[in-house]
C-alpha cells in the first residue's frame, strides 16, 4: 500500500502522493471488509457488494474488490448457487422456493437454472416427504409452502388419498 502510493524514506508527501495513499487505503479497507465477510460464509457477487455498500465502502473500491475476488475465484456465483440449492433441497424445499432464494441473492437466471437442474427431481423429493409425513391435505399444504409445483404435489397426494364416498 505504501509502495503503491510511491512513498519511501526521504520522499515528500505532496498532494498527489497523499491522494494515491488515500486511494490505496480505501482499496485495502474494501479488501479487508470483503475478506471478513467471506470468512463467515460464501457470498454471491451482489451480496458481497451489498455488504460493502452497507459498510460505506466507496463505490470504486467496492467494485474493484468484488471484481478482484471474483477473478481470483474467491467469489463464485455458480458455486454459491449450487451449494445453496443443494442445502435448500436437503431441507425439503421445492424448485420454486430455491429459484426465488437464489434470485434474491443476485444470482443470474442461467446459473439458477443450472443449479436447480443438478438437483434430485422434485417428484423424488416429494415422495421422500410423503413417506415421512404421510399423504394428507395438510402435507399438500406443507409442500406448497415449501415451493413444490402443483404437479409434483397433486399426483402423489391424489394417488395416496382414500377414495371418495358417494
Description:
The longest helix has 26 residues, at 15-40. The chain is an all-alpha fold. Helix content is 69%, strand content 0%.
Largest sheet: none
- How far the N terminus sits from the C terminus, by CA atoms, comes to 82 Å
> What is the string of helix and strand elements?
HHHHHHHHH
The chain-level structural class is: mainly alpha
Strand fraction: under 5%
Spans of at least 5 consecutive residues with low confidence: 161-166
Radius of gyration: 24 Å
From the spread of the alpha carbons, the general shape counts as: rod-shaped
Please render the helix and strand layout as text.
Blueprint (H helix, E strand, L loop, with lengths): L14 H26 L4 H10 L4 H13 L5 H14 L4 H10 L4 H9 L4 H12 L3 H9 L4 H11 L6
Helix pairs in contact: 1-3, 2-3, 4-5, 4-6, 5-6, 7-9, 8-9
Label this structure with key terms.
166 residues, 2 domains, 9 helices, rod-shaped
Task: Describe what is shown at a glance.
The protein is mainly alpha-helical.
Amino acid at each position: 500500500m505504501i509502495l503503491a502510493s510511491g512513498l519511501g524514506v526521504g520522499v515528500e508527501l505532496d498532494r498527489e502522493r497523499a491522494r494515491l495513499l488515500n486511494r490505496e487505503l480505501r482499496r485495502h479497507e474494501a479488501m479487508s471488509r470483503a475478506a471478513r465477510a467471506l470468512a463467515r460464509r460464501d457470498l454471491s457477487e451482489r451480496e458481497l457488494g451489498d455488504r460493502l455498500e452497507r459498510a460505506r465502502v466507496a463505490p470504486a473500491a467496492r467494485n474493484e474488490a468484488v471484481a478482484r475476488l471474483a477473478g481470483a475465484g474467491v467469489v463464485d456465483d455458480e458455486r454459491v448457487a449450487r451449494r445453496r440449492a443443494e442445502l435448500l433441497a436437503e431441507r425439503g424445499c421445492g424448485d420454486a422456493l430455491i429459484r426465488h432464494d437464489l434470485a434474491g441473492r443476485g444470482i443470474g437466471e442461467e446459473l439458477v437454472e443450472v443449479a436447480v437442474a443438478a438437483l434430485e427431481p422434485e417428484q423424488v423429493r416429494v415422495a421422500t416427504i410423503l413417506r415421512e409425513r404421510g399423504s394428507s391435505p395438510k402435507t399438500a399444504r406443507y409442500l406448497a409452502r415449501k415451493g413444490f409445483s402443483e404437479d409434483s404435489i397433486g399426483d402423489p397426494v391424489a394417488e395416496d388419498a382414500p377414495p371418495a364416498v358417494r
